[in-house]
Amino acid sequence: MGKDSLSIIDNRTDKTYELPLTNGNIRSMDLRQIKKDADDFGVMGYDPAFLNTASCQSKITYIDGDRGILRYRGYPIEELAEKCTFLEVAYLLLNGELPTAPELDAWVDLVTHHRMLHETTKAFLEGFRYDAHPMTMLISTVAALSTVYKDARNIFDLNSRRLNMVRLISKMPSMAAYAYRHSLGFPYVYPDDLLSYTENFMTMLFKMVEPKYVAHPVLARALDILFILHADHEQNCSTNVMRSVGSSQADPFVCTAAAAAALSGPLHGGANEEVLKMLDEIGTKANIPAFIDKVKTGKGKLMGFGHRVYKNYDPRARIIKWTADQVFAVTGKNPKLEIALELEKIALEDEYFVKRKLYPNVDFYSGIIYQAMGFRPEMFTVLFAIPRTVGWLAQWEELLTDPEQKIARPRQVYTGYEARTVVPIEERSQQPVAAL
Ligand code: MLT
């Protein structure tokens, strides 16, 4: 068996360097010793968008993108979605082990009893226009809670840290429901501690004047499964932001707000909203071949297909398809499903997509289900942020307790002007500048 190291020859100096491999990888800092001369800064890894750079070691979520495998703490996502509740999976992500029955009861009790929002939250939300996007209201309200729970800054005090993690997990659905009802001009509904996590959320969203709103059990369970599927996904963009902001030792409320801001982008959590727009644009199954041609000629984009990590079928998309049948049995079919299924069938048979390893991802079917369940498209990313809060917090706590981590501060490759001096204004000539 060879040594666990790489030998690198610097052809500029004919020097050879031996770089140890840890878990099969080199440490980027070991490249720095490779210098063309004493004044040289040394070699860096240059990796826009972190295509091949690991920023941390993690024990939380494992993905094998080539084989379409996703595991939380070693458990396959399929098994967790089938056999567990969202709060059970939240306990697993945060604690590393599935809870025993008494542990689960205590955890559910804890999360249930922190759902209430400080009354000033209402006044805060009143500051938003009626047509404000619920996701932006959620981002702002999460950050604002940092001013209510000042102890959240004590991030290295375990009890305080855990209490504020529970507050965030408990209050995300409440804030989301308040933002949704504000956008519709509906009065806010207080949380009901007798209801499960998703039943309560649906009640706070949809209860009108009926004495008791009862969430349909199939829909509440489907939402629970969707929450399990979105809870964590290792070092995705928003989690990277959670870790990056967290590395400055900011409190978890503002870290979560920053992560949610990253998630709000159409390339990230906003993708399922884009899928619905695409399906609306296609309109009927008959228009699919023409749309596929547009995609192939670069004039269209097949939203909900392809993924940075998965070069195979996203396992979450398969589970969502299965859940869709349960939901549609209650809500009636969303006509967009037919178009989506046909689009998937054609794409999976078409060499153009197969060659590019483009498969449906978690966003392809989630929007269709959410819409059938009565959620408006602008709420889709909010429905992603609620469960992902658990993953963000698990990753944040792993960062805080990792002795190797420091404040995140990437290097850059400077390609601008070398040193130059200021020319008196009357002597300057017009220079072409980039249009602002
Ligand atoms: C996610 O779940 O965050 C998305 O699939 C994006 C990603 O993993 O990069």
Compute the average pLDDT.
95
Q: How many DSSP-defined strands?
A: 5
Q: Helices and strands: which structural class?
A: mainly alpha
| Low-pLDDT segments, ≥5 res | none
Task: Profile the largest sheet.
Answer: 3 strands, antiparallel
Element-by-element helix/strand order: EEEEEHHHHHHHHHHHHHHHHH
Question: Strand order, biggest sheet?
Answer: 3-4-5
Number of helices: 17
**How far apart lie the N and C ends?**
57 Å
Approximate shape: globular
Q: Strand portion, in percent?
A: 5-15%
Cα-atom radius of gyration: 25 Å
Q: What is the structure about, briefly put?
A:
The chain is mostly helical and 436 residues long. It has 17 helices and 5 strands. The protein has helices spanning 77-83, 86-95, 101-112, 120-126, 134-144, 158-184, 197-206, 217-230, 237-246, 252-263, 271-282, 288-296, 315-331, 336-349, 351-355, 362-372, 380-400; strands at residues 5-10, 15-20, 61-64, 69-72, 75-76.
